[in-house]
Amino acid sequence: xxxxxxxxxxNPALQPNGExxxxxxxxxxxxxxxxxxxxxxxxxxxxxxxxxxxxxxFNIAADGVGENLYEVTLKIDVTSKxxxxxxxxxxxKYAGLFGVRNVPDDQLQPFFLAEAPRILFPFARRVVADAxxxxxxxxxxxxxxxxxxxxMQQVQAAQGERVGEGAPVGQA
Length: 172
Hints:
alpha+beta; Bacterial Protein-export protein SecB; four-stranded antiparallel beta sheet; disordered C terminus
């Protein structure tokens, strides 16, 4: 019968020296890195009739900023236009600082491009809604985004390109 104070030799995460070698990722901080709101046609824009066309673009970047520290930035660009012109333009870079420990390199990209944006998005969504409302418009509530699904589409597209690289093009 094993002594309850002895280390579990079957669990490699529990080392006798007390070092925790299990993988872990934690959000250290999140913040607005850059925010721009433009209302180029004020005050005339507030008299325009008709529903605007809203274009929303997303971009995700991950950069190492120190030992075991990574900054993930969710960039959101929104342009609202009507037949009369541009109603508003908003550009937001919302970032999170993540600490990483004992995570295999092949697992970092899925986290940074799928999970980290999922964590940051609700807060970035609120910043966009508040900025639009502070600009004199109804708050813009961005629809939820399936970052994991988008990441998987990118992975599948990249795999498809690699498979097609060696295939002949056209007919001989």
